[in-house]
Give the backbone structure.
Amino acid sequence: MSYTCVKRLVRQFSSFFRARGATKTEAPVDNGVHRPPKVSVPARRPEVRQSTNDEQNEQVNKTAKTTRQAKTEQIKVGAFKFCSQKFTFHTPSYQFPDETNVLERRFVASRMLSCRIPPPTGYTTPVRWPMSKTKVWLSNLGGAKDLEKMKGGQNWLRVRDKFVHFDGGGTHFRKGAAEYLRFLGSAVPLSSSLIRTALDMGAGVASFGADLLTYGILTLSYAPHDQHSFQIQCALERGIPAMLAALQRTRLPLPSASFDLIHCSRCRQVGPDKLAEIDRLLRPGGYVVESRSSESVTVNALIEELCWKKIFSKRRQGHTTIYQKSKTPCRRRSEKYPLCTEKYGAETEALKDTPWGQQFGSCRFTTANIQRHPTSIQMPSIRDVGAAHGQLPAHPKVIEKNMKAELALTKTHLNYYRDYGFSASSAGASGLRNVMDMNAGFGSFAAILEDDKVPVWVMNVVPIEAPNTLQHVYDRGLIGIYHDWCQDAPTYPRTYDAVRMENFSSMKFVERCGLVSVVLEVDRILRPGGLFLFSDHASMYGALQPIMLALGFKANGVQNVSSAEHDQMLAVWQKKAV
């Protein structure tokens, strides 16, 4: 690093709390504060042995570090103030009261706040898993009483005294999801190893996904922030995997051929475009369960075009129909669903696994048929995929080598995290259940926890600027999403017990939107008492440490695990409990 670069870094760091102008795409939210400027993070150095010039640069870096420390000593604990109480349940990209018909994510930069999201009055340490599956604190939720009034007859939830109780009911299974799953089990092999990942569309409070856990099936539930308000917040407070989303015009932030089972209970009108998106997400041989008041004529007219087969149709509190996708590639010539490569060109094949911000259309992608086996969690069958983000080598042997290396390194890091409070029995004062990995890679962190039978679930996030590894995460039998960390995550405030940030210094969005913005988003989604796990270069730690101090986080432990070839710091910070 040149001396000029070092001076620039120091100047940028000293202006840490200087106001930044708001984006003009929408009238700025009146939160009483301005967003701080970006904090520059030095680019990651190549992991090679140092030459003589490198040794000189290292001395300059040490000088810069000393200067930086002197500049940041004046940062005080609590420098980031709390927003007003009206932002307690703030989800920037999903709450647009004036546009109730627009349910999809819509990012507006000015809605991202530079203050801390406050907990609601009376916030209480969440109920521990597995008790949280059936009851949670009323004081931690927004709109639970309104939801009870709207959905009480469908047995979604009951509010009693200080708790919200979940009896397992849903729109199409008022007697409970357990009884509904027994009904579906006559046609779908829920108890076999053939089904591991499921997607529940319009999931309500996620009782369907909660009961699928007893079958060893990991379900990603989603619903919009609509008139039913905080249904996904209820799901996450229960400890059930869930996210905010809606299937209206754009693809879901998920890779192709990811789910063995897709469930839709009284979904909105399912037209040709939406069916094509469901087909993209469904594995060959996978099942689609549709429950509604009457059998869908629209779907029945289109399934043959997609090479689906209707295998079950029966009336039960309405009508339930089950379809199965062909196990072999669909060769049917279809006017409604031509192959995307035929309709738009061969280059569109890579788009099936880069769905971020894409509008869906009525065409079919070819989907890989990956067979799972008992050891898939550690080393799945490797898809022969293209480098969709232009970075990941496509050859399966190279992918397998990288996956093994990541697994070994992650095991080492996890041992340090456990020494500093990250364990199955303790995450602050609340217990550990919901975990997010912000740069998940191949999902090794989640795979180790799953293999060790730690009672957690992990939302594996693959940033849109990172190598496209999310297909391999799903092939392990895990779940996750694509995301741009310059935007807010698809979740409510205070919904995760632990968040892991690893190797962010190589990401372009750190320069694009600033490290402060990213860390404020971590603070938004992390529960009081929750843990923030960090692993990256020492330069990144130096930039992050004063921000965590300003947020009032406590350092449980810091470990330098540098080698002769590269520097590496591990840290665990804990958010202050209420």
